[in-house]
Amino acid sequence: MAEPREILDTAFQKAINPHTVEASILERVQIIVFNTQNRAAVRLVLACALAKVHQPKVDIRKPYTEIGDADAFSGRVYDERDLASFLMRHHLPVNETTAFLTPALRNRNQTLEKNLNLVGKPPIVYQAALNLLDDVHSNKISASDLLSIIFAELVALRNNNQQRLQLLLHTSKETNLPLSSEEIWVLLEQHLRSPRSSRLPVLMITAVYQAIGHFFNEQPRPLEAHNAADRQTKSLGDIEIIVTNDQAIVTGFEVKTKRITRNDLEIVLHKIAQHPTLQNYVFISTESIDQTLLEYAATLYEQNGIEMTILDCMGFMRYFLHFFHRHRIKFLETYQVLLLQQPDSAVGQPLKETWLALRRAAEAR
Q: Which residues have C-beta within 8 Å of that of residue 154, sequence separation ≥ 6?
């Protein structure tokens, strides 16, 4: 029996010219592949189909060993061990992390039958996924053919997304007068008002350090997946700043698109005990900041020897852009590269296109 890596490679090669498939099955595949609101369902189906090809005797609808049946399997193992690196290598537009940690799919011990209500959003995506698993179980399509068809659609989506971004980049207007600090700030603020933009503040702060951190001999560590919990990654926050050529964390940033609470500060106080090199911790918020909470944060230095504060995201960005005015364009280009390199699960294709359109309009003015 072929190993998972070989199975995936074979299915991907077949995806170049997928054979004719029943219209209803193709429609379900396109629902799970092209829906921008939910990118977990496609990884669910891929992991289950891979397991079925690798172990023909398993029931594709039973990706939980907790079910206890002889034909059950661990979908999460196939997802994380075999599928994740393959998807990353081919830059396919799916979630960075396993589907089996999403609310609709974690902590289950039941067969994923087509009439099961997974209570996931949008329902049409999960229903399409369940129907595809049933299609394989009912022998309407083989698991290997399902893999190939999904890969074909993912490749088409990937290529289309890349072409659209390249077209927008190519048509960007070049001007003799670069954008001012205030114009860049307005551009960032407009983009942040777009739907599903919670990742943007993290990218802004990271771009700041990538653009000017060398002046202070500091740099950000590589970002964790946008939906990875700190307890899983053992990270100190959303952004960790280290001294160049040293892995010791000196500054931590936690970015929230909601109001910071005292409980948020208390959680951090427990985490910083594991990081003796930490010197300061900064909360970045896109919402209003409680003055009494700021005053409480200021008292923590005497208790722990670590500075802690809460900053308004766009206020911070405005000060930065004006204070480091001569480096504003380097920041702008750094931010754009970070943005466009993000997987679609973190920064969706519409949000990337919105940025390029906003920038083009700003430069045209």
A: 33, 42, 92, 93, 94
